[in-house]
Every structure is written in C-alpha cells, then in structure tokens.
Amino acid sequence: IIKSLGFRGLYRRQGAIPDAYDKAFEWIFQALSRAALTSTDIYWITGKLGAGKSTLMKFLIEHRAVREHLEHWSSNKQLVFVSFYFWNAGSEMQRTQEGLLRTILGQVLTQIPSIVSPVCPRRWAWFKFFGEQAIGLAPKRTWEELIKNFSALSGFIGDEFQLALFIDGLDEFEGRHETLIDFIRLLQARPGTKICVSSRPLIVFTDAFTRNPCLRVEDLTRADIETFARGEFGRTVGFRELRDTLPSKASQLIKDVVTKANGVFLWVSLVARTLCEGFTDGDSLSSLQATLDDLPSDLHELYQRIWRRISPKHLRDSCHLFRIQYASTQPLHATTFWLADEYNMSVDIVAASTAHSDYILGSMRRRLNSRTQGLLEVSHDDYVDYLHRSVRE
Question: Looking at the record's lineage, which domain of life comes first (predicted)?
Fold first, then answer.
C-alpha cells in the first residue's frame, strides 16, 4: 500500500542537488534554531536564482543537528520528518500537488505503518480480501481518494505524531501558486506541525510569507562563496603558483569574484570554470582580471556568453542535444539519450544498454561537455539533466 504511493524519480531531485561545499551553511543554525524551537509560523527560505536555496534545503534535511532541534520540539511524541522537492524539469509528479500529497502520505506511513489502515481504508480492505499478491491489481488511486487519505492522515498530526515538513522550490510548482500556499497554510494550522519552504522571491510568495520568519540566502553566503572559489581555483597549478608568489593579488582576485557574484553560487561555479582554464593556460594576472571584468554578472547573459563559446563545428550537435532534452516529458537516462542522439546508427538496443554501458556513459559525458559547455550533464544516477533549472528557462 505504501509502495503504491511512490512514483518514478521520487528521490531523483534530491540526489541531483549538489552537496554543500566544505563547511558551507553552518551559519544556518544561528539563524534557524530559535525559529525552529519557538515559532509556529511557516519558515521561508528565499533568494535569487542560483543563490543555493535547494542546496541549503538539502543541507537542512540531511543534517543531524536539524533533527535534534526538531526532536526537542516534538518532546515525547514521535517526530515524523518529511521532505519534497518540486522540480519543473522533472516528471509530472515532481511538479504537481499530487506528487506532493503522495510523498507526504508515503513518507509518513513508512515511519508510522500502524496508521495505514485508517488512512487508506479502501486499499487496506482490498489488501485484506485479496491478499498481498493482488495489491498491484488494485484500482488506480484517484485524486479524490488521495484527498480522503490525506484528510484522514491530518487527523493524526499532533496526537499520534509531530510533523516536520520541508518543501523546496515552491516556484517550480506547476499550477496556481495561490493554491499551493493555501494548502501549506492549512497544513501549518494543524497543531504539531512545522513547515520550512523555499522559493524565489516572486511577488505571490513575498506577499504570502513576508511576515513569517524568513532567510535570504544571498545575504549570508559571502564567506561560503569565497571558500568555494578558493577551493575551485586551488585545483589548478596556475592559481597555486600565483597564491604562493603573490598572495595579496590572489586574494584580491578571489574577492573580486565574490563581489561580482553578488550572492549567486551558480554564477561563481560557472565563472570558476572559465578562470580555471585561464590559470591552466598560463594567462597573466591582468588577462585573468580582464576576463573576469568582461563576464556579465547577470546569469542569463552569462549563459549566452557560454553558448557563444561552443565551437562552430559543434553547434548543430548542440542544438540537437538541447532539443532532445527539452522535448522529453521526463528525465532521460544517458543510454536513452545516447540512442536518441545516435538516430542515424543501427544499434542493438540490448547490447547498447548492457555490454557498452560504460562506453555510452563516458561518451555522453564528453559529448555534453564539449557540445553544451556543461549546461547539460550526466548526473550522479546516470540521467541527463540541466546544470540548473534556469538553463531550461
């Protein structure tokens, strides 16, 4: 019954989000702990495009200290910890309220299986009558049934358990944002509920959460971005030589990068690639500074600059790869993507997906890097993803 609530790619988004760099975001506990322990309001994490909101949410969801704070809040009642990541480049379930409801139900019932029967009485009756082997033949779960299941579940919050819910990417929800906000507020009104959400500062969310406890990511990440930039540049021999010979000049270059980033982690990540190439190529300090000064601070303008760096001989291939990704209604495995790109070849699909899998993955990584300058990439689970949702936009 619990398994039937899941859907394909349920945890893909969380896995695709990069981990926090080194000791980044440790400052969050000073900003969040008081609200987590004393406030009954929705906690809103907001920030610019590419500022690192999803990475921060993943950090909070996975950090033991957060659970310890919430366990203290839940006192003698069981704490149920639930998380969901909206993702507009993912499947329909990853973009809709149905996916959110299925995830909440599934994660709660997994942690408290004793309430499966009263929460899902129809499924439970089917299971008891026909047996475990027939559960897969049960009627498809309708929206009306999901609502009834969730309504029944809500009745246990505060009595049977305390709910801590983290929802990332409200702005990636496919539907009326007001509907989602109303749902979150209704759930927060239940005693024994704490909710933390994240989104870009769209007007609809600013109006809804402006009086709630709030954190703007870009206001607090300067030190984290500097640590990240030093780490990325430090991978190159050229920067290490500059740092050892002219430490003040190396530090100033880092500071200039951090200042121009203006709190946007993604911008630094993209620019670091360009500057690291310069370090590797032996560019002079003045040349590196000129490169930095010439790069646009706006993320979308930077994407255009990256696009123009694609070799003319690869432009046709690049367009084809982006068309495949954009046309896909769900994330494609690298093997499937490779087959779609190799449409002129006569390929044994079974052989391509087994015996040659290592070759295919390596080939796709190199191809995406050269044809898209890293704007498309093979993720940790071997699916092809956009570097960031803003690339798709």
Answer: Eukaryota
Q: Burial level of 343, CB count in 10 A (0-12/13-18/19+)? A: exposed
Average pLDDT value for residue range 278-306 = 91
The secondary structure of residue 157, as a DSSP letter, is: B
In the chain, DSSP assigns E strands to 43-46, 78-85, 161-168, 193-199, 214-216, 332-333, 376-378, 383-386
Q: How far is CA 347 from the centre of its chain?
A: 34
Flag the least confident range among 22-31, 85-94, 142-151, 169-178.
22-31
Which amino acid does the sequence have at 69?
A: H
What is the Cα–Cα distance from 133 to 191, expressed in whole angstroms?
38
pLDDT digits (tens, 9 = 90+) for 96-135: 999 999 999 999 999 999 999 999 998 888 877 777 666 6
Q: Percentage helix, strand, coil, to 5, in the chain?
A: 60, 10, 30
Q: Are residues 47 and 161 in the same domain?
A: yes
Write down the mean pLDDT value for the chain: 87
Q: Which of 308, 323, 346 is the last residue of a domain?
A: 308
Predicted structure pTM score: 0.84
Q: Tell whether 254 and 277 lie within a shared domain.
A: yes
Q: Which of 194, 219, 244 corresponds to the end of one domain?
A: 219
Half-sphere exposure of 41 (CA within 13 A, CB side): 14
Do 292 and 146 lie in one domain? The reply is: no
Q: Which residues pair with 161 in a beta bridge?
A: 78, 157
The answer to whether 105 touches 149, Cβ cutoff 8 Å, is yes
Q: Is 300 in a helix, a strand, or coil?
A: helix
CB count, 10 Å around CB of 282?
Answer: 10
Q: Grade residue 330 by pLDDT with cuts at 50, 70 and 90.
A: confident
pLDDT digits (tens, 9 = 90+) for 21-35: 766 677 777 766 555
Note the Cα 228 to chain centre separation in Å.
Answer: 19
Task: Domain count for the chain, please give it.
Answer: 3
Chain centroid, CA 285 distance in Å: 35
- Residue/partner pairs of 133-140 with CB below 8 Å, 24 or more apart: 135/1, 135/4, 136/4, 138/4
Domain holding 326, by residue range, is 312-392
Domain identity same for 21 and 156: yes
According to DSSP, the β-strands at 161-168 and 193-199 are: parallel
